[in-house]
């Protein structure tokens, strides 16, 4: 089913206002977008553009690049010009780079007011420059760099502290009639993070950028992000997401897109329905599922492939899928749209599934 027809969880989308990050809309009824951040030195323009191209191919909607020095700021015009997706410059400490990023043609700027000491005085100029250039801003509040004043007040970066910081910073822009911004309140603890976004969602109609900051290596970070984003998105909270992993950024995009697909917030593409295997398995399900997944990687059609270890649930699941195998006695029964089309020896299961998948995919519309 399309995203609109697919069953949705718990609550409809929260009504946030819509902003633009270059060609990508964020908030309102715009699809939840997926972001990542480059890990190359921004000064290495070619390497950064190469990484952006890889992210784009993996399904990234918006990319952020760090801008910690003048040399990085100098690289922004070329990166913004050549990138296939909107570029957001990530600025800490130095307001002058905000202006440089706007002049460079970046689609957005992320500011961390907790780290920009003279921020209050400069908001008016930043708001005017951003407005004139049609550039949006993210107010990125982060537990690790919370405003000192709030840290003292709350003792630690609690959900309330993050929200107070965000609401105050939002008001600074709003005082100057600037509304093209989204907000994030990131924390490395998914529970604190969820509570912060829940509270923030009640306080205004700002579009929200979700993130569990410093979520950890791939396994832990994936789970923390999936749990936190799932809790929020299932209740309609969140307009754009960034999964933070100590892993290559393409992995962040894969995880982000998989989270959105699992919640029916993005059309599902290839889906492998494979059983966990058990004492009844008559085939090595792990290897089989892995080989099939690998063989079909990058498939752009909504194909559901069942890989089942035995005949208990095997035929049932395999029948429900577009394509499937139910294994037993050294053989695999291959199902297509519920019909057994052939039985092949175990050694030919993978190649047969891949062959059939390609054939079915050709008749399907990419999503
Ligand atoms: Fe076990 Fe068969 Fe179920 Fe796989 S399909 S988990 S092998 S009973």
TrEMBL record:
Ranges where the IspG C-terminal domain occurs: 271-357
Domain IspG TIM-barrel residue range list: 17-256
Catalytic activity: (2E)-4-hydroxy-3-methylbut-2-enyl diphosphate + oxidized [flavodoxin] + H2O + 2 H(+) = 2-C-methyl-D-erythritol 2,4-cyclic diphosphate + reduced [flavodoxin]
A matching Pfam family: GcpE
The protein's Enzyme Commission number: 1.17.7.3
Keywords assigned by UniProt, alphabetized: 4Fe-4S, Iron, Iron-sulfur, Isoprene biosynthesis, Metal-binding, Oxidoreductase
Full protein name: 4-hydroxy-3-methylbut-2-en-1-yl diphosphate synthase (flavodoxin)
């Amino acid at each position: 089913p399309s995203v609109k027809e697919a069953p949705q969880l718990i609550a409809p989308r929260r009504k946030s206002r819509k902003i633009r990050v270059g060609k990508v809309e964020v908030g309102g009824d715009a699809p939840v977008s997926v972001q990542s951040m480059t890990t190359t030195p921004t000064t290495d323009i070619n390497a950064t553009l190469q990484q952006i191209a890889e992210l784009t191919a993996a399904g990234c909607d918006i990319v952020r690049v760090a801008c910690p020095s003048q040399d990085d700021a100098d690289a922004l015009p070329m990166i913004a010009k050549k990138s296939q997706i909107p570029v957001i410059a990530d600025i800490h400490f130095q307001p002058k780079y905000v202006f440089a990023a706007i002049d460079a043609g970046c689609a957005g700027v992320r500011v961390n007011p907790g780290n920009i000491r003279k921020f209050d005085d400069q908001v008016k100029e930043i708001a005017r420059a951003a407005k004139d250039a049609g550039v949006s801003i993210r107010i990125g509040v982060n537990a690790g760099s919370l405003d000192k004043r709030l840290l003292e007040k709350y003792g630690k970066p609690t959900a309330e502290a993050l929200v107070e910081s965000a609401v105050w910073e939002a008001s600074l822009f709003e005082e100057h009639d600037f509304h093209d911004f989204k907000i994030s309140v990131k924390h490395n603890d998914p529970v604190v993070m969820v509570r912060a976004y829940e509270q923030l969602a009640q306080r205004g109609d700002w579009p929200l950028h979700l993130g569990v900051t410093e979520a950890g290596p791939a396994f832990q970070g994936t789970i923390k992000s999936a749990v936190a984003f799932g809790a929020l998105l299932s209740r309609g909270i969140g307009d754009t997401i960034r999964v933070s992993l100590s892993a290559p950024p393409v992995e962040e995009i894969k995880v982000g897109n998989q989270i959105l697909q699992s919640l029916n917030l993005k059309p599902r593409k290839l889906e492998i329905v494979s059983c966990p295997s058990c004492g009844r398995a008559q085939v090595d399900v792990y290897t089989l599922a892995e080989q099939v997944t690998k063989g079909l990687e990058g498939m752009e059609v909504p194909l559901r492939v069942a890989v089942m270890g035995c005949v208990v649930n095997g035929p049932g699941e395999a029948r429900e899928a577009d394509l499937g195998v139910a294994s037993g006695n050294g053989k695999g029964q291959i199902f297509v749209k519920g019909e057994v089309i052939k039985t092949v020896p175990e050694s030919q299961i993978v190649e047969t599934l891949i062959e059939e998948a390609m054939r079915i995919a050709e008749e399907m519309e990419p999503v």
